[in-house]
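User: quick one - fold this with S-adenosylmethionine bound?
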Amino acid sequence: MTARGLVVVATPIGNLDDLAPRAVAALRAAQAIACEDTRHSQALMARFGIGTPLLAYHEHNERELAPRLVERMRAGDCIALVSDAGTPLVSDPGFRLVAAAHAAGVPVSTVPGACAAIAALSVSGLPCDRFAFEGFLPPKQAARRERLRALAAEPRTLVFYESRHRIAESLADAAAVLGGERRGTLCRELTKLHETVLPATLAELAARVAADPEQQLGEIVLVVEGAADAAAEAARLREGERVYALLAQDLPPGRAAKIASAITGAPRNALYRGDG
Ligand code: SAM
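Assistant: Sure. Structure tokens for the protein plus S-adenosylmethionine:
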């Protein structure tokens, strides 16, 4: 493999067998591997017999180290960039180095692979044609709820990384702010022994995770259905009202609303408010 410039290499998010052969070749061919935690990455390198020197590149030293690495690459070295898991730069360090390499005219190439956000989306059962990756929600409740409120009308599928320490609170807030009926999929420990993919409403997920500490373990991605398109929702409601009016001629209002809601998808309580 010809090794030039900066190579951004994805590594597994759990199952080491997911490391691509091209990633192994790129890591072997580089003169150095910039990684978040040398001890953590050493285990991966040892497993694949990769002897390339590792150097620590993380949020605390990237400002100072990025220009030095760019100088090395300008002088002819190839540097591979990895993170602890998955795709570097995705909620991980590396942005400064990639930007500095571009600015210096150093070639930047990719060896793509695992990314927890994309893996979660692909198993979520929610639309993947348009999505918004939101990274981690703020740890404090007030800021978290404010962020969720700002996203409440977002029609794209939402993808959040979440810590096991906060997943129960975040799900409760998501259900409260976005609506308990909205669908979500909790994706936990992907590619690992305890991989769990739980599709449900946000209210159900919040209750399930609060009641079952096992669902609060490991690494988690929460995928949330986007807000219903306002125009489509209004059309569904109009159709629901039309069907309800027809059914209510022969059925008790509660029953008519239930059937009209099942036929049209309009919310039952918007059709029948106990006025019949
Ligand atoms: N760069 C990584 C990527 O491409 O996915 C993400 C790094 S971010 C610091 C770590 C977060 O990713 C975890 O807190 C969790 O939300 C998510 N994550 C990583 N591995 C995961 C896995 N195997 N299953 C579920 N979520 C995972």
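One thing worth noting: The first helix runs from residue 21 to 29.
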